[in-house]
Amino acid sequence: MRKNQTILALIGLATVVTVVPLMAHHAFGAEFDRDAPIRLQGPVVRLEWVNPHAWIHLEITKEDGTNEVWMVEGGTPNTLLRRGLRRDCLTPGTEIIVDGYQTKDHSLTRANGRDVTFTDGTKIFLGSSGTGAPYEAEMLATRQQQGRC
Amino acid sequence: MSNFIFKLVRTLRRTTFSVLACTAVAAVSADAQTAEIPRTQDGKPDMNGIWQALGNAHWDIEPHAARAALQMQAGPVVPVPAKPVLAFGAVGSVPSGVGVVVGGEIPYLPEARAKKIENQENWSERDPGIKCYLPGVPRATYMPFPFQIFQSSSHFFIAYEYAGALRNIYMEDPGPAQVDSWMGQSVGHWEGDTFVAEGSGFNDQTWFDRAGNHHSASMTVVERYTMTSPHHILYEATIEDPETFSRPWMIRMPLYRHVNEDARLGQFKCVEFVEELMYGQLRKNPIGSEERR
Amino acid sequence: MNMRHTTLISAVLLMIASSGFSSHVKAQVRAQVDGQWVMPRTADGRPDLQGNWTNATTTPIQRRRDQDAVYTPEEAARIEGGRAARTEALNQPSDPDRVAPPVGGDGSVGAAGGVGGYNYFWLDPGDRVAMFNGELRASLIIDPADGRYPSRTDASRQRMAEASQFRRQFGQYDNPENRPLAERCIVSFGSNAGPPMLPNYFYNNNYTIVQTPDHIMIMTEMVHDTRIIRMGTPKPLPEHVKPWFGDSWGHWEGDTLVVETTNFSPTQLNRGQLSGATDNLKITERFTRADEYTLNYEFTVDDPETWTDTWSGEVPFTRLPGLVYEYACHEGNYALFNVLSGARAQERREGGRQTPER
User: Fold this and answer.
1) pLDDT category, A130, cuts 50, 70, 90?
2) C251 and C232 in contact (C-beta within 8 Å)?
3) Is pLDDT of C324 > 90?
4) Is it the case that residue B72 has pLDDT exceeding 50?
5) What is the pLDDT of residue C15?
6) C154 near B CB under 8 A
7) Is B133's Cβ below 8 Å from some Cβ in C?
8) Higher confidence at residue C66 or residue C32?
C-alpha cells in the first residue's frame, strides 16, 4: 500500500498534469461520510450493472455472527463494457475485499467502493491506458488464466 | 371536308377522354400500390420523419371497457377510483379500446396473469411510467407522444419525444447484448419493403401499457415496419417470452405521419417533473410537514 | 525519496512514452501519407459524418498560463506516458490485509471528496493529447490567443452574482432542486451534449451521428440526449420556446457542416461555461471530416452581452472503437436518494442544526 502511494506521488511530480476536473456525476463527499470508514470482506451476492453507478452487493458476517448485505458504489459500467468486460466476469460467490466509507445515512448498509479487490489484493477489474503497452496484454493473459477478466 | 374534320375532332376528343380516363383509373390503381411510397436513394421506403400512434394502446393493449381510473378501490356500491388518482377525475379515466393484441388477449401463463392483475391493483406504486422511467419496447412506440425516425443507408435511429428515449437499431449485429437495458439492443434488416428490428437484452422493468401488462428479462421483440402509404406505417411487434407467456403473440397498429410543415419533436424531459413525487419526503422541509415554516 | 523507485518510475515513463507517442503519430501520418483516403459520401453527395465518435482527450479546455498553444512532441509524450504510468500504478494489487481508511477522510481532493471515490478502472478519461490538423494542442480553446475564456462583461458578472444569491438562500442539500443537474440525471456533468460539445475528462465521452438529407442527429451517450439539427434556412422558434441544447439549424459550406444554435433553455444559461449568458447567445459549430478516424469539430460562442469577445475552440472527434451503450441515469439513481437522505440523517445526528458545508 505504501509503495503504491509513493509511486503515485512520484508520478504526480514527474508528469505534466492536466487540469483535475472538480465535477463528476456527483461529489462523493456529498454522499459518503468521512467519519464512517469501513472494511468489508465477503462473497459477491449480486451485481447491479446500472448507471449512473454500478453497485456490487456483498454479504458480510458481523461480529455477532449474523449476516448482512452491503452494496458498494462503483462507476459507470459502460466503461467496462467497452473494454469487453462482461458483468459475469465477477460471479456471485467470489470473495472480495472493499474499503471505503459508509453513506451519511447510517441506516443504509451502503458505502463507496474506494478500493475493491479480490482476496489476494488484485483489483477486480483493470484500467486501460489505451496505449496497448505490452504489460497490459501480459496482465490480462494472467488474469484470464485465473478465470478473471 | 368540314364534316370529316368534325368527326375527326370528335373521335380525338373521345379518344383523349378515354385515354385520360384510363390514366385516371391507372393513377387510382397506382395509389393502392407501393409505387408512390417515397424512397431513399438506396431504394428503400423512406421512413424519415415524425410519426405517432393514435388510439389508446398506451392505456391498455388488451380489449377493455372504459373505466373510472387506473387504480380502483372497493366502494360502498361499486369500485371507485383509489385515493392516489381520485383528484384526476375524468382526466384520469381510462377510455375503452378494442385492443391492439392480435387475437384479443395476451396469452399469459397463469402466474403471470395473476401478476398483471396485482400490477393493476397497485398501479400507482408499480407503473414505471409514473416515475418517468424509460418506456421500453414496444411501449415507446405507442406512448401518446411523437417519435422521429432517422434513416440513412447505414443507420436506423429512432428518437422518442417521451423521456428522451432512443434506439439505435444496428444494421450490423454486434453480438448478444452485453448487459440488459431499458430499451434493449435491436438489430435491423430489410425484408423487401419491410424494416425488421429484432430486439433482445431487455430488462424486466418495463410494462407494455398502463394496465400492468409486464414481461421478464427473457423477452425478445421482433418489430416490422411497413409503409402502406406515404403517411402510414403498419407496425407489428411479435413478443416472445416463455417465462411469462404460453406462446408468442403480436400487436398491430398503424402509425401516422405528422404532416404539418413545422412538425418537430418536442422535449419531454420528465425526470424533473417527478422529483417531488420521488424525493419530496427527503426535503429538509417536506411540503405540508409540521416543520414547514 | 527512494532512489530505486525514482529510477524505476523514470524507466517506466520513458518506455511507455516512447512506444505510445510514436505509434500515435505514426497512425496519423499513415492515414495521410498513403494518400488513398477518399472522403466517404452519402448518397446525396455530402461528406458522411455518421458513426460513433469520441472527444475524450487529456488536453484541457483552457490552457495553463505558462503553456504554449502547441505541445512539443516531448511534452506530449510525457503527458501520455504519465497517464499510462498512472494507469499501470493504479492497476497494481492492493494490500489484502489493508484496514479501513482513516476516520476524517483519506485526503483525496476534487470529485473524490475526501472519501476516495472509486477505483481508477471505472474511468476512461482520455489517453491522448488532442491532435488537430497535425498539431498537438495544449487547449481546446484556440481563440482568444491565450487559449483561455475571454473576460466577462459587468452585466454577466451581475447575472451570475444574482443567480448565486438565489442559490445561497438554500442549503446545498435542502431540496433535490438544489443539487447539480447531473446528480439529478437531467443532463450530463460537463458540456457533453453542449453545445459546445466538450469532453468531461471522466468517461462516456461518446456520440453517435446519423445523417439524412434534411437532418443531422447527434446522440450523446450521457444522458441519452439527442440534438436534432434541421438542414436549411432557419425558421426561428418563438422566443419563449427554449429547449435544452437550443434550436439548431445546419447547412453545408463545401464539405463542412455548419450548425447555428439559438434559443437556449434558461437553465442551460445558468450553468458551467454558459453561466450568465443571455437569450442572445448564439453558438456556431463546424464539422469537417478530416480523415478516416477524425472529425474536426470547431465551435464559436457569441454573446456580446456576456463575453467581451467571442471565444472559439477546436476539438478532434475520433472514431470510437466500440458501441455507445444505454446510459439510463434516472432509473438507477441511488446516489441522489443517498445524498438527500444522508443530509437529513446528518442533521438529525447533529440535533437539527444546519448541515455543515462539505
Assistant:
1) low
2) yes
3) yes
4) yes
5) 44
6) no
7) yes
8) C66
Residue B24 lies in a domain: no
Residue A109 contacts residue A86 (beta carbons within 8 Å): no
Residue of C nearest to B41 (CA): C43
**How many residues are given for chain A?**
149
Residue B221's CB is within 10 A of a number of other CB atoms, namely: 22
Q: Is B43 domain-assigned?
A: no
Q: Which helix (H) or strand (E) holds C225?
A: strand C225-231
Chain C interface test: which of A3, A17, A26 (most C C-beta within 10 Å): A26
Q: Do A28 and C113 touch (CB under 8 A)?
A: yes
Residue B11 forms part of a structural domain: no
B201 has a chain C CB within 8 A of its CB: no
Beta strands in A11-85 (DSSP E): 32-48, 55-61, 67-73
User: Angle, nearest 10°, between helix axes A2-14 and C3-33?
Assistant: 50
Average pLDDT estimate for A49-77: 96
A89 in contact with chain C, both atoms CB, cutoff 8 A: no
Q: How far is C248 from chain A (nearest CA, A)?
A: 27
Task: Please give the backbone phi and psi of residue B120, each rounded to the nearest 5 degrees, phi first.
Answer: -65, -40
Q: What percent of chain C has pLDDT over 90?
A: 80
User: Domain ranges in chain A?
Assistant: 24-145
Chains that touch C (3 or more CB pairs under 8 A): A, B
Task: Kindly state whether residue B152 falls inside one of the protein's structural domains.
Answer: yes
Range of the domain at B108: 99-280
- Amino acid identity of residue C83, one-letter, is R
Distance from CA of B264 to the nearest CA of C (A): 9
Query: How many residue contacts between A and B have a Cβ separation below 8 Å?
Result: 9
Which whole number is the average pLDDT over A122-144? 77
- Span B239-248, pLDDT tens digits: 999 999 999 9
Query: How many distinct structural domains can be found in chain B?
Result: 1
Compare B181 and A133 and report the one with higher pLDDT. Answer: B181
Please give the class, per CATH, of domain A24-145. mainly beta
Q: Maximum distance among all alpha carbons in chain C? A: 72
> Which ipTM was obtained for this model?
0.88
Helices vs. strands in chain B: H and E counts, helices first: 5, 11
* Rounded Cα distance, B202 and C255, in Å: 40
Cell 477478466 appears where? A149
pLDDT the model gives residue A137:
73
